[in-house]
Each structure stands twice: as C-alpha cells, then as structure tokens.
Design a protein that fits this description.
Blueprint (H helix, E strand, L loop, with lengths): L1 E2 L6 H16 L8 E4 L18 H7 L5 E4 L2 E4 L14 E5 L5 E4 L1 E3 L4 E5 L2 E5 L45 E3 L2 E2 L1 E2 L3 H6 L3 E5 L4 E5 L11 E4 L15 E4 L2 E5 L19 E2 L7 E3 L2 E5 L2 E4 L24 E3 L2 E3 L4 E9 L2 E3 L2 E3 L15 E9 L2 E3 L2 E3 L4 E6 L5 E4 L2 E3 L6 E6 L6 E4 L2 E3 L4 E8 L2 E4 L2 E5 L19 E6 L11 E3 L2 E5 L3 E4 L9 E3 L2 E3 L5 E4 L10 H12 L9 E4 L1 H9 L10 E3 L3 E5 L4 E6 L6 E2 L4 H4 L8 E2 L10 E6 L19
Parallel strand pairs: 1-52, 2-3, 3-5, 4-6, 5-16, 6-17, 12-13, 16-19, 17-20, 18-21, 19-22, 20-23, 21-24, 22-25, 23-26, 24-27, 25-28, 26-29, 27-30, 28-31, 29-32, 30-33, 31-34, 32-35, 33-36, 34-37, 35-38, 36-39, 37-40, 38-41, 39-42, 40-43, 42-45, 44-47
Antiparallel strand pairs: 7-15, 8-9, 9-14, 10-11, 10-15, 13-14, 45-46, 48-49, 49-52, 50-51
Length: 672
C-alpha cells in the first residue's frame, strides 16, 4: 500500500492531547477564569466546577478575554451569542468537554398534545412553543417565515405561484429529519413528512408506518441560529468540539442586497476576525451550516454596517464535520487570509436547490475571498457542487482536497477577470463528480496543477424547466465556456494533470471575443482517438455563427468531424495543432498512455490506479511565470497528486483524516 500524503491523523491526535492538557491546566491559570456549564447546573451558581452554570449563554456573558467557557456533556437548547471577543494574546474559548457529546440544538422537544388527523397524521399546535431567538426583521418563529427560494426544484411563492410555500421550520422524529411538503395533500401521500398549517399555526406530521407517534420524540426548530454573536466584527473567539444541529435559517437568495437573506449559518462568525472553529459537528441546518465571511446586509434588527472583506481576516475552520445541511455546508462572502482545512463536508444541499435564483448551493462556496486556503478537506456526496469560488478569488489556493462523487461539478470557478495564475488548484483528487470535475464560466486565472481528473460520463439534457433554467449537455472532465457578458473566460492553465476514464477530457471555448489564451503542458491522457472539444460559447458577436466557427476550426486543425451543438471534436494531435496557433503552451509534451485504469474505493479512502508505462518527473520551471512567485514551486514533480508513480497497479491512500461515517449517523467524536 502506497501512502498518499493528502491528510493524516497526526493533527487530530495532537488536538486530543491538547484538549487533555487544557482540561488540566486551564483551571490552574491564575489570571484567566474557566466557567463550567452543566445540564444540572443553575445560572445563579458560581460557575465553577462544583457549582456550574446551566446555560452556555450565561458563561458567554461572564467570559472576558482569556477566559474559557467549558461545557460538559449533555444537550443544550439555546442560541449562544457571545457579547464580546478576545485578543490575540487572550482569546475567549468555548470548549466542549473532550471525548463527550455536547449538543447545542436549535430545536425544542414538543411536549404538547398530539391531535389525530387520521391515517398516521397528527397535528402539533405551536402555541405552546417558545421562539426565543427573536432578533430578526421578519419573525422569530421559523415556521412563519417562507424560504426565499423554494427547494426541490419547485417554483413557489417567491417565484410568483400561489399555494407552494415552504417554511424555514424543521421537524425531527426520533432524530430523523422529516421532509417538508408545501401542500397538505402531498404530505398525506408521503410518510415521514410534514406540512405547516399557517392558519392554525400547527404542524401536521405524517409518521413513518411502524412508529407509535405518542411514544416518539418530536423536535421542532424554534431558533433561527445556534452559535452566532449579535454584535458583528468580534475577534479571537475559539469554538471547539460541539455538535450543533437543527435550526431554521434562511436561504441566501440575493444576500448582497436583501437583508433578510444575509448569509447566516447555524454557526456563524458574524463578520468576525481571527476565529478558530475546530472539531465541531454542524448538521441539519435548514439552509447554511457554517458562514465565515462578511454576510452581506445585517438580517438582525440591530442593522449594523456592512463589513469589508479586509476586516474579516485570519479565520480558521479546521477539522469539522459539516453534514446534511439544507443548501450549503460552508459559505462565505468576503474574507481575507482564511484557512479551511481538514473538514469533512458531505451530504449538503439536502433540500435539492437547483435552478433560477438557487445559486448559493455547494459543499463549500466562497465569494470574494482574498489569499484564502482550502486544503485537505474531504468534500464528497454533496447534492450539488463540491467547491465553488464565485466573484473574485485573488491569490486563493485549493490544494490536496478529495472532491469526489458530488451531484454536480467537483470544482466550479465563476466570475473573475484575472491574469494567469491567480487561483492555484493543485494536488487534488477530482473524481466521479456527476456533471464535470472542473467547470468554469465567466472566469479567468485558474492554474490547475498535479491533479487527478477522472471518472466523467457524458450527460445530456440536464437542468429543467422554469425561469432561467435551460437544458444543457454536461459530462466533460473540464468544461469552460462564456455564459454572460459580466467578465471574460480565459487565462487558464492545465499542467501535469492526469486524465483517466473521462468520456470527454476538455470542452473549452474558442479563444477569441470574450475568451482568449489557455495553456497546457505535461498532462497525461488515455489512448483515446477523440475527447477534446472546442465550443462556441465565447460571446460571439453577430453575424458570426457556429457554422462559421466550426469551419474555421476545421481549417486550423484538419478536423473533419463537425458538431451539431456548437462544438467541434478533435483528436489529441488536432488539439495540439489548434492550441499551437493560440497559445505559448499547447500541450506539446502531452503523453498518451494505453490501458490506464483508475478506481475510487470510498470504504478504504483509496484510489487504485494502473499505469502501464513508466512516468518520469517533469521540470516545473517551464510554467514558472504562471505562479508569479505567490505559491511554492517544486523544481520538478511527477504528473498527478501522488508523488512518485510506479509502473503497474498500486493503491494510494487519499484520505486519512477524521472518519466520515454513514449518512444520518452521528460521527464518532471520541478523537476530539
């Protein structure tokens, strides 16, 4: 077994040891205080180990820079809102008891009467519930707030149709998330579902067949967020080791201009700086799991100013589980020098947002993040894109991530007009993502180096009907096109990557008009006769049409196969000939290898790869100008992300971090 160096467990074992050390020494520190929280405590107590507080919020009120709020095992149902931050030398630390399960929930247990409605349907009156997270412009009760964009590819009230209304509420029965239906009749037809009766302020629940409703635990979301200050811009706060679940936050539709829809995660830094968010589980938020940027306009009545990305600086999001959230796992608009590292990001967009005004769904999605690093994360099985950089990404790096089996593209780059080498995407596993491994539109400056890009199948007629939805052909390992006039799509570079088992390797727009030079060197391809496309999506001016462009490509390359969908398919030799006319790096040293094979084994977090021919390292100085001295550059490297490659079949461990576990099960947190 060959070890692949992406992610290892050393950091987690060190983290566990650090927890134990802190558990011993923090109470002994003379200057700082440690406030203890227990489910059997009382807020009138002293807050020490023998006389703990009852709520985390009480500890937050007491904590000053340098203090620790130490939360013992149990379930806490509250929104925690730190009133102050710490300092560089004296952060405020919120820490769950190491090795224990410490829940903070945005839900409460329903203790009222269940009214039978027939056929396993019972109603719960919300008149007995308390909605204490009351700071919003709309409503503290999540069930009374419509979702800004309806999920499940349905056009609801925000799009103009009457009667289709989803709410921010959530229902959990014995820990299982039940699905919301916007119409009563639909709820009646589906078990494990619910519907909100606005007129009676009641939730109707259709229980699963084998359950006895009166013997179940019903949890209803009563809070919009779980851990987020009211005051924006606090700094030096550490949040470590909690399980946060169940909240009713909003979909961030037009978050940049609609205050009610600001990016507001279950766990949110609220435009803060120098936060450290480590070893937490964040799951089952109605929409956003964790937000770590400048949010947009304030969605709270305090109505604070909008923060500049330069102010939201130095945050670290490390070693967390971000699972099963409604639209997006980790999101951030506007941040500088942020590190997102070693996280497990899976099963997000469980509400299946897709289509018009549903553009904020991904495992990880960032806008305008400056000098940020996204590294060593497992981003897998999200019902959407894996990682999406949108609208500015200067000096960013996406490195050593495992991005596999996501429902849409693995990595999506959008909207940024830059020179070569602005964002580095290197040493990643991009494999078995359904639409593309790499998708780019209206963006420039991507530098893709030493990645494995594999397992793409042809698709057609994806998308759907409705406003802004078009049927499109995906299924390319790398797909680059212009779809609007906002910016340009050019200056991308692909160096030293391994392409295996893709029905289409590249589909790239013609390098004129709003497109331009692209660069290629040192890539490895399978022995395919075809699989290289030039498309017409370059914002071609009238009266030039696709037939003219196809004829032009044919003359440049000798290609005799014409596409009927605005694309021309080329062989590798024709591809090289085409780009020699348009680029200084035209894949002149690309290598074709017969019978290459690759297989991803998720149970073992490994890739088995067969390379029948010997490969040697390539000199990287050839593309040094693309790095612009911003990133480390090795003098030479083997193609792909594995380091030295041996001839034959070998297995490479591609992930050795915190174990992801199965969907619906709480991850094992004993390593924390």
């Amino acid at each position: 077994m060959v070890s692949y160096f992406l992610i290892n467990k050393k950091g987690f074992f060190i983290g566990k040891i650090l927890f134990l050390i802190l558990a011993i020494i923090l109470p002994e520190i003379g200057v700082a205080n440690t406030y203890y929280i227990s489910t059997i405590g009382n807020n009138q107590n002293k807050g020490n180990l023998d006389s703990p507080f009852r709520t985390i919020q009480k500890g937050a009120y007491m904590a000053q820079p340098g203090d620790t709020v130490w939360v013992m095992e149990g379930v806490y149902r509250e929104r925690v809102s730190p009133p102050r931050g710490g300092t560089e030398q004296a952060p405020i630390v919120y820490m769950a008891e190491p090795g224990k399960r410490v829940f903070i929930k945005g839900s409460d247990v329903y203790t009222g009467k269940l009214k039978p409605e027939g056929n396993k349907v019972f109603s719960c009156s919300l008149s007995t519930m308390e909605f204490t997270d009351d700071c919003y412009f709309d409503n503290a009760n999540p069930f009374k707030v419509p979702v800004a964009s309806t999920p499940w590819e349905r056009d609801g009230e925000p799009e103009g149709k009457e009667g289709i209304v989803f709410t921010l509420g959530q229902v959990f029965v014995n820990g299982e998330m039940y699905r919301q239906y916007p119409l009563k009749n639909e709820m009646k037809e589906h078990e494990a579902s619910w519907w909100y009766n606005e007129e009676k302020n009641a939730v109707l629940i259709h229980f699963a067949n084998k359950l006895q409703p009166k013997k179940t635990q019903i949890e209803l979301t009563t809070r919009r967020r779980i851990f987020a200050p009211h005051q924006r811009g606090l700094g030096y706060i550490h949040v470590i080791g909690f399980i946060m679940e169940h909240c009713g936050n909003q979909y961030p539709r037009n978050f940049w201009e609609t205050k009610e829809n600001a990016q507001a995660g279950a766990l949110g830094i609220r435009c803060g700086h120098h936060w450290s968010v480590m070893n937490n589980v964040v799951r089952y938020a109605a929409n956003i799991g964790l937000d770590c940027g400048a949010e947009g306009p304030d969605n709270e009545r305090i109505n604070q100013r909008i923060y500049d990305p330069e102010e939201v600086i130095g945050n670290r999001i490390e070693n967390n589980y971000i699972l099963d959230n409604g639209c997006t796992g980790i999101i951030g608009w506007g941040s500088k020098e942020m590190v997102v590292k070693g996280n497990v990001v899976m099963y997000n967009n469980n509400q299946m947002y897709r289509g018009y005004k549903r553009y904020e769904s991904a495992g990880i999605k960032f806008h305008n993040n400056i000098d940020c690093i996204v590294a060593e994360n497992l981003v897998s099985d999200n019902f959407t894109y894996g990682i999406w950089f949108d609208n500015k990404y200067p000096n960013a790096r996406v490195s050593k991530n495992v991005i596999v089996n996501n429902l849409r593209s693995g990595f999506f780059l959008e909207m940024g007009d830059y020179d070569f080498g602005t964002v580095l995407v290197d040493y990643n596993i991009l494999m078995d993502n359904k639409e593309n491994q790499i998708y780019i539109h209206d963006a420039s400056g991507g530098l893709f180096v030493n990645n494995l890009i594999a397992g793409t199948r042809k698709m057609s007629n994806t998308g759907g009907t409705g406003p802004g939805r078009i049927k499109e052909a995906y299924g390319q390992a790398v797909y680059i096109r212009q779809v609007g006039s906002r910016t340009k799509t050019y200056h991308h570079s692909f160096y030293n990557n391994i392409f295996i088992d893709n029905d289409i390797n590249y589909d790239i727009n013609y390098p004129m008009w709003r497109s331009g030079e692209q660069r290629f060197l040192g890539n490895i391809y399978p022995e395919y006769q075809k699989g290289f496309y030039i498309n017409s999506a370059s914002d071609i001016p009238k009266p030039i049409d696709e037939s003219y462009l196809a004829e032009k490509i044919s003359k440049e390359t000798g290609a005799d196969v014409f596409g009927n969908d605005g694309r021309v398919e080329l062989s590798l030799n024709q591809w090289q000939k085409f780009w020699e006319l348009h680029s200084m790096h035209f894949d002149q040293d690309a290598r074709k290898i017969e019978n290459m094979k690759v297989c991803y084994i998720p149970e073992k977090h490994s890739v088995t790869m067969t390379i029948p021919e010997e490969l040697k390292p390539r000199k990287n100085a050839r593309w040094n100008e693309n790095y612009k001295l911003r990133f480390d550059l090795r003098s030479e490297s083997f193609p792909g992300p594995f380091g030295e490659l041996e001839t034959g079949s070998h297995s490479y461990i591609i992930y050795d971090g915190i174990p992801p576990g199965k969907r619906g099960e709480l991850p094992c947190i004993n390593i924390f």
